[in-house]
Design a protein that fits this description.
Blueprint: E1 3-5, H1 8-13, E2 18-21, E3 25-26, H2 29-39, H3 44-47, H4 49-53, H5 64-78, E4 79-81, E5 84-96, E6 106-119, E7 123-134, E8 142-152
Parallel strand pairs: 1-4
Antiparallel strand pairs: 2-6, 3-6, 5-8, 6-7, 7-8
């Protein structure tokens, strides 16, 4: 499901809107390793499959910040911005990591529009909660309230 915003008023009208869920994405070791290389975080629980198999999670797990960063991957499948002049990631209000994402787990994003506030004449600040679910899991991997500033034509 994907909701389309094309104006400040359409974003304001979407407060409380459930955006549904995305397709599943498999968390591969390759993705984890590339994130480790990009951030310099090569802790064994992320990149050493042999040692991780005997560790607390029974396998390598994704970095929490890798999981959080995938909110940006999932958002375009949850919402479309039509007639957008410019969009900016403004930040995050709250982030939690209730459960680890093991290598080869499937995850998806689920969205909820929490807030929308006008900014200037043609802009709006939108807060969307992205809950990153783990297939078969009883807790989400990440819950992040993303904040974007959007300016429409």
């Amino acid at each position: 499901m994907s909701l389309a915003f094309d104006s400040v008023s359409s974003a304001l009208a979407a407060i409380g809107q459930d955006l549904g869920a995305t397709e599943w994405l498999t968390m591969t070791q390759d993705r984890i390793d590339k994130f480790a290389d990009a951030t310099g975080d090569h802790q064994w629980i992320h990149v050493d499959p042999v040692r991780s198999a005997a560790g607390p999670f029974g396998a390598c797990v994704a970095h929490g910040y890798l999981t959080q960063s995938l909110a940006s991957y999932f958002l375009p499948d949850l919402v479309r911005w039509n007639r957008l002049k410019m969009g900016l990631n403004y930040g995050c209000d709250k982030v939690r990591f209730p459960a680890p994402v093991r290598v080869d787990a499937r995850i998806r994003g689920r969205g909820l529009v929490l807030a929308a506030v006008p900014v200037g004449e043609d802009g709006v600040q939108v807060t969307i909660r992205v809950t990153i679910e783990i297939e078969g899991g009883d807790k989400p991997a990440c819950v992040v309230d993303t904040v974007s500033r959007l300016f429409f034509e």
